[in-house]
Amino acid sequence: MTESGRRLGVVSHRNGRRDLVLYDPDDPDACQADIPLTDDEAEALADILGASLLLGQLSGLREQAAGLLTEQVAIPAASSYVGRKLGDTKARTRTGASIVAVLRHGEVIVSPEPSFRFAAGDVVVVVGTRQGLDGVTAILADGDPDG
Q1: Any idea what the Cα angle at residue 102 is, between residues 99 and 87, rounded to 5°?
Q2: Which end of the chain, N or C, is less packed with Cβ atoms under 10 Å?
């Protein structure tokens, strides 16, 4: 149920088919629209909703906590951390900022484990102070938070 009072859903059939369904506002048991989704469309919809929800929540957190910021940091191909584990960065210990998610090819990896391996082009979502965010950016760019 949306805030505006509309009911919608995703029906996942046993044969793997998925449908996006919009229910009639006057009869909650009647379907007003049924849109079949391919696997790629269903995955894209899930990714869009998941990523925007996560980033919206982080944005709301930023407004509530004075001095706490969120930023998206792209991992350049030249980074010494491409192919290496998140834990190798020691980002939180070195900067006080936390890597809370990684965006990769439209997929959102929430709360990546220290064993998570970075790839060139990953976009890292970081939460911390301005100084901490700048430190993580420096680490991921060239391995030196003071550089």
Answers
A1: 50
A2: C
Binned at pLDDT 50, 70 and 90, residue 56 comes out as: low
88 CB contacts (<8 Å, ≥6 apart)? 81
Radius of gyration of the chain (CA): 20
For residue 145, what are the CA distances in angstroms to 17, 45, 89, 98?
Answer: 48, 37, 10, 14
Identify the band that residue 45 occupies on the pLDDT scale cut at 50, 70 and 90. confident
How many angstroms separate the CA atoms of 96 and 116, rounded?
Answer: 19
- Maximum Cα–Cα distance across the chain: 62
Residue 39 tokens, joined: 């696997």
Q: Which residues face 101 on adjacent strands?
A: 110, 125
Amino acid code (one letter) for 92: R
Q: Kindly list the structural domains of the chain, giving each domain's residue range(s) and its CATH number in brackets, ordered by start.
A: 8-37 (no CATH), 67-142 (3.30.70.1450)
- Rounded to two decimals, the pTM is 0.55
Cα dihedral sign, 54-58-59-61: positive
User: Could you tell me whether strands 123-128 and 8-12 are parallel, antiparallel, or unpaired per DSSP bridges?
Assistant: unpaired
3-state secondary structure of 106: coil
